[in-house]
Design goal:
Oligomer: single chain
CATH class of the largest domain: Alpha Beta
Helix content: 25-40%
CATH topology of the largest domain: TIM Barrel
CATH superfamily of the largest domain: Metal-dependent hydrolases
Number of strands: 21
Distance between the termini: 76 Å
CATH architecture of the largest domain: Alpha-Beta Barrel
Radius of gyration: 28 Å
Shape: elongated
Structural class: alpha/beta
Largest sheet: 9 strands, mixed
Strand order of the largest sheet: 2-1-3-4-5-6-7-8-9
Length: about 625
């Protein structure tokens, strides 16, 4: 595609540029980190470079970036950058472009780089880059979408799911340039961003250009759809109006916004403005500056963007420390260039040491099963998906690794976890129609805490859907058995040093999706699950099994209920907790509503407490 943007301006040379740069530099903090700067080579363009991409010689390297930005912000302040490939290479050149940009960033201390990703790329093409300490994440771009015109492309057509999964696995960032007319206000964009951020909570999403806020009302209107997401950031690159910045500061605070230049866009002489239902670039070839009046002299986009950001900071009363965060600290912490140690960040989750302070021995309760163990939140009669609040939750230790609720995906993907940490009891990341997931663990933990129980840890390893074969060790697909074992291993590893433990009980809520054959074997398979876990889990020889009975109607489900209810007669370490009286609380004849989930959790806790009383 032809690139027809205005010619690159090299270092500021008009009197207006110099005067404005001097005024703005008086307000800047001592360190600047550019969270959005492009590097490129002319030879990599699919078509001959033009406009801003043609004004830097054969290569735009970090040295060229520094030379061109220095007159705007001061060379001594530039501590580093997140360097991004230009998204216009020949498709066969993407691997070479990525390698060159990473090598260039490695030669610029205090910097990081992104790698281009495209739908047709095999994921293993990135393998040579993953070991590089300079790689910070990925850069998808709409120009790689097969949808035409690409400016209307749905997000999933140019940002492959494997990139989300890899970013989650390795805690990498994804810098995303939104498209479609409404950008962040587009409902499809909102749904896809929220679903992916919740499915892959350790992926860090940077919404470039203030969520493509060139038309500021799109960002202002769209931000509420991202409310509550803890893995979304924004860069300021190329935005020349303060409205979008103010909306981000209002919704997310000063720790999620990062200064970026979009170099070389920062060198355009002009600015971008909101117009009608879109935006317009006021440049040398689009405006008759002689008719704008005697004061109509344009300056550089980089300076216009700086002025807008500082005006937004003033409007919010940000102090010097906040400005240092906006201009460097936020990006450096996000990219691992600085420690996350600032006490002014959002309230951090307490470490395991404080949740288990003074505890010498911990009892683990392991919850597993399908959707009523996972705990769906798609009841249309309950628009608020979160559980009712309880002050005890902050003191109840919880560790989780949940798997997808979608059917037909074989070994369901891991989509939500506690990041390998023991955290306070809480709802977990949702997926699809479920904004959150939470199940009987909430009622269970609260009941134990209410009776004065301490020194326990709830470990959750659940999934949505799926028959009991997934928990049958040695079956053709025993991924849930292996998942439970691995989740417990990680939870034990997260315990504070010197704390001993035992696996006290398995909490099992499963059976609604069992086939006829699975239902007929459900009792024996649950007995084998307990036997195998007692052997394969550490300190589990005396593990009890608390079976949360299913309530959904159906002939196969009746068989499951009967077989599970008969287990205590065969093995005194089993307890069956009936839930048939909760059937009226199934919001879709299958899934428990909030009241039922809390009640089932309380009944499981009561069963444990009753057994304890008999010891």
């Amino acid at each position: 595609m032809p690139i027809t943007v205005n010619r690159l301006n090299t270092p500021a040379k008009t009197e207006l540029d110099r005067r404005l740069a001097a005024d703005l530099q008086e307000r800047l903090p001592p360190r600047l980190f550019d969270a959005h700067a492009h590097l490129w080579r002319q030879a990599d363009f699919e078509q001959p470079a033009a406009g801003i991409w043609a004004g830097s010689g054969d290569e735009a390297t970090p040295a060229v970036w520094r030379e061109h930005l220095a007159p705007q912000v001061g060379a001594a302040r530039l501590a580093g950058a997140l360097f991004i490939p230009v998204p216009y290479p020949r498709p066969k050149r993407i691997a070479a472009v990525n390698a060159w940009v990473l090598a260039s960033a490695a030669a610029c201390p205090g910097s990081r780089a992104l790698a281009l990703v495209a739908p047709e790329m095999p994921p293993d093409e990135l393998n040579p880059l993953l070991a590089s300490p300079v790689l910070a994440g990925f850069k998808p771009y709409h120009t790689f979408s097969p949808v035409q015109p690409t400016f209307q492309a749905p997000l999933q057509t140019f940002l492959p799911e494997w990139a989300w999964a890899l970013a989650h696995e390795r805690r990498l960032v994804i810098t995303l340039h939104l498209v479609r007319d409404q950008a962040l206000a587009d409902p499809e964009n909102q749904r896809e961003i929220r679903a992916c951020c919740e499915r892959y909570p350790r992926a860090r999403l940077i919404l470039a250009h203030a969520a493509r806020g060139f038309h500021a009302p799109n960002t202002v209107r769209g931000l509420a759809a991202l409310r509550g997401l803890g893995n979304v950031w924004f860069d300021t690159s190329g935005i020349c109006e303060r409205d979008a910045f103010e909306a981000i500061l209002r919704e997310f605070g000063p720790r999620r916004l990062m200064w970026g230049t979009d170099y070389p866009v920062s060198q355009i002489r002009g600015r971008c403005v909101t117009v009608g239902d879109g935006f317009a670039w006021l440049e040398a070839d689009s405006v008759n500056w002689e008719k704008t009046g005697p004061q109509g002299r344009p300056t550089l986009v980089g300076l216009e963007s700086l002025r807008a950001l500082l005006a937004a900071a003033d409007a919010f009363g940000l102090d010097e420390a906040d400005l240092q965060d906006l201009f460097a600290g936020n990006a450096e912490r996000l990219l691992g260039l600085a420690a996350e140690e600032d006490s002014r960040t959002e309230a951090a989750d307490p470490p395991a040491d404080s949740l288990l302070a003074g505890v010498k021995h911990v009892r683990l309760f392991v919850l597993t099963g399908q959707s009523n163990s996972l705990g769906t939140t798609a009841d249309p009669a309950e628009p608020e998906p979160a559980p009712p609040t309880d002050p005890r939750d902050v003191d109840i230790p919880f560790f989780w690794r949940n798997r997808s609720t979608r059917a037909g995906d074989g070994p369901a993907m891991l989509f939500g976890d506690s990041g390998g940490k023991i955290l306070p009891l809480q709802a977990q990341q949702g997926e699809g129609a479920n904004p959150l997931f939470w199940g009987p663990e909430i009622g269970f933990g609260r009941r134990l805490a209410a009776t004065g129980e301490t020194g326990f840890l709830i470990v959750k390893a659940s999934r949505g859907g799926g028959g009991n074969r997934f928990w049958l060790k040695g079956s053709a697909d025993d991924h849930m058995y292996r998942h439970v074992v691995e989740t417990v291993r990680q939870a034990v590893s997260a315990l504070p040093e010197g704390v001993s433990f035992e696996i006290a009980a398995l909490l099992y809520v499963q059976g609604e999706s069992d086939s006829a054959d699975e239902a007929s074997a459900s009792g024996e398979r649950l007995r084998l699950l307990a036997e195998n876990l007692r052997q394969d889990l550490p300190q589990a020889a005396n593990m009890r099994v608390l079976v949360g009975g299913i309530a959904a109607p159906g002939a196969s489900r009746d068989i499951v209920r009967g077989q599970q209810a008969n287990l205590p007669a065969r093995d005194g370490r089993f307890r069956y907790i009936d839930s048939l009286d909760l059937r009226p609380l199934l919001y879709d004849q299958l899934h428990f509503n909030k009241t039922a989930k809390l009640e089932l959790g309380r009944r499981l806790a009561d069963a444990w407490l009753a057994d304890r009383a008999l010891e």
